[in-house]
Amino acid sequence: MEHPLSQFRYCPKCGSPHFEEHNAKSKHCADCGFTYYFNPSSATVALILNGKDELLVCRRAKDPAKGTLDLPGGFVDMFETGEEGVIREVKEETGLEVEKAEYLFSLPNLYLYSGFLVHTLDMFFLCTVTDTAHFQAMDDAADVFFLPCRDIRLEDFGLDSVRRGLGLFLKQPHFYMHNQ
Questions:
Q1: How far apart are CA 159 and CA 44, in angstroms?
Q2: Closest C-alpha among 80, 79, 20, 13 to residue 44
Q3: Number of structural domains, the chain?
Q4: Which residues make beta-bridge pairs with 49?
């Protein structure tokens, strides 16, 4: 596998071309001594259920995986907690107000963005919203709708960590209470 910083040829501190692999996750500048460590970016995923045993899903408006199903969420901004990030992302993509965001678990992921492979740590939250009846697709979502949990097909979700996380969520009775 290619080094995660292979696209970075010059030291970001001094501009030197002597910016070389230091170890599997960092590069070091031979001229100024700066070492840059490549760590995952934080991202969030919202699991929102209504009272009808349905899960809120989005259709991706942009690449990667444009047109496939997804869950609301996205990158955490600087100085935001994971909870603040998921609350903001749900509002931006659906217009829904999250009143409670309960952290469930996290999964590592690779996300191709603008030709650059971003390593992420995707944090999954069970979110309670104030109103499940009034929402709309906005921002990165081309569509947003509630899908009956019995009709969920993991292969319809375009992002690997969302498929894996949704599979874990639906299989765990302490995460998800399936009404039959």
A1: 13
A2: 80
A3: 2
A4: 55
Q: What is the pTM of this model?
A: 0.88
pLDDT, one tens digit for every residue, the chain (180 residues): 677 788 899 999 999 999 999 998 999 999 999 999 999 999 999 999 998 989 999 999 998 899 999 999 999 999 999 999 999 999 999 999 999 999 999 999 988 887 888 889 999 999 999 998 899 999 989 999 999 999 999 999 999 999 999 999 998 765 555 433
Q: Are 77 and 88 in contact (CB under 8 A)?
A: yes
Cα atoms found within 13 Å of the Cα of residue 100, Cβ hemisphere only: 5
For residue 147, the domain's CATH number is: 3.90.79.10
Eight-class DSSP state of 150: G
The amino acid at residue 26 is S
Domain that holds residue 144: 41-171
Q: Which two tokens stand for residue 117?
A: 């492979």
Please check whether residue 114 is in contact with residue 32, taking contact to mean a CB–CB distance below 8 angstroms: no
Under DSSP, is residue 140 helix (H, G, I), strand (E, B) or coil? coil
Whether 159 is in a domain gets the answer yes
Do residues 102 and 91 share a domain?
yes
- Closest among 107, 119, 113, 121 to 42, alpha carbons compared: 121
